[in-house]
Amino acid sequence: MANATLVVGGLIGLGLAIPIVGSLLPEAGGNKGSWAPLSADEFKTLESATNKPIKLDFTLKSKDSYLPEQSSGEYVWGIKVDKAKFDAARTDLPKAGTLPYFDGSYDIVTMNFVILSPICPHLGCRPIWSDDANRFQCPCHGSQFSLDGEHLAGPAPRGMDPLPFKEQSGAAEIMWIRYQTSIPDRVIISYTS
Fold it and tell me: Hey, where are the domains in the chain?
């Protein structure tokens, strides 16, 4: 009787253990980024940009390995740049002009545009563009950045972080990347907000 109880208990335990352990394993590709499209109006606004950044709103869709897909409103800063001037100003970026992401690397300057993350590399606040000061200013700890995202003042350890941007078949798309704050290197934490 004792042995039969152990066998039945073991079978029940095994029957429960397999789906429990399976649910703890993340789905393949759950942590990879996804491209978020800009509306045609937003892309036209970006194309007409001249000497100040354009705030681009978009819907960020993300899927955690354990949760269903979620959508949230996000924004980035789009700027029109001269590649040579941008490369000269942003000495904190690689000379090759590319940064890594989950699917390889991306060009920082695409079609003469750079998309900047709205997250301050100091502690994660959101710098805002000041027309009066002609620079990005972080309201939390006073970091300041030029139009190109170059670090000018304050405690931020690096300039503003560029994000992947591409144009395909007439549609512009952005990939969201969250970098680790408070360090000089760009270390990717996640592809969700």
Answer: 28-190
